[in-house]
Design brief:
With about 110 residues, this protein is of the alpha+beta class. Helices cover about 20% and strands about 25% of the residues.
């Protein structure tokens, strides 16, 4: 019996956060949990983007989504913060600048 190699489609690459990016996101999350604003989070690595979603309650839709889309890095910037309705609240090339949308007094919690 001869061995026949199997050929399958190559695995698609998954976009994910780098360690420093994830540490920064988790620091922001911890600060917002301590303030009583956020209660849960989810992370998704997809083929074109990665998403850090934050929730007031786990059973609801996310309050905010922080997305990294490397394909947009040279155009609009790889980073974006989206509100509940999918509206882009801030977009840019630098994670720190994009996260400034969460500085005290600069945003309102969507109910």
């Amino acid at each position: 019996m001869a061995f026949e190699p199997t050929y399958s489609e190559p695995a698609t690459a998954v976009v994910f956060f780098e360690r420093r990016e994830l540490e920064r996101l988790l620091r922001l999350y911890g600060r917002m949990v301590a303030a009583g604003e956020w209660r849960d989070y989810a992370i998704a690595g997809l083929s074109e983007s990665c998403v850090f979603s934050v929730f007031r309650r786990a059973s609801e839709q996310p309050l905010y989504r922080i997305e990294k889309r490397p394909a947009l890095a040279r155009k609009q910037g790889a980073w974006a913060v989206l509100g509940q309705g999918g509206h882009i609240l801030k977009r840019g090339h630098d994670l720190e600048q994009v996260l400034k949308v969460f500085d005290k007094g600069r945003f309102t919690i969507v109910e």
